[in-house]
Amino acid sequence: xxxxxxxxxxxxxxxxxxxxxxxxxxxxxxxxxxxxxxxxxxxxxxxxxxxxxxxxxxxxxxxxxxxxxxxxxx
Length: 74
Prior knowledge:
This protein is an alpha+beta fold.
């Protein structure tokens, strides 16, 4: 029983680390690098609060899902 409780505790700690997500600026840089590598130009990436993407496409989520990264052309 003690081993089971220890395993559950470790899994919950690991889950918390995964739920924290990446910092927004780090993820934004990774997305920009992928777009640049594909030859995409004339775009902007903006970090906004979750659900505030009024005029763009959500291309990523960061900081535990509390923020979105929005892609806009032009």
